[in-house]
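dumping this here before i forget
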Amino acid sequence: MVYCDTNQNIIEWQNEEKCIPYRSPIDGKIHRYFPDFLIKVKESNGTIKKYMIEIKPSKQTIPPNKPQRQTKKYISEVYEYAKNQSKWEAAKEWCADRGYEFKIITEHELQIK
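structure:
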């Protein structure tokens, strides 16, 4: 959030204020997804671009590796991955309808060590 406040190219930003409905593949019910940020940015070419940003560990953005034995940890990771995929598909549709670009940022982009 400090980054958003101090970056002169960020014109506006919101934190977890937009609610996007999505259908969970786990229980088939509609749930609410609150993306981490909505940001309006002045790009280097002078154009204004709107982004919806989700920050996640990179491990949660790829399907979990199936172990020889299905552990509780593996099943939990599969559920989390499936739930995230549903959230992100709903977010991409929302963004496409409203002129936003959906981006997932991980520790690799943030350069966290």
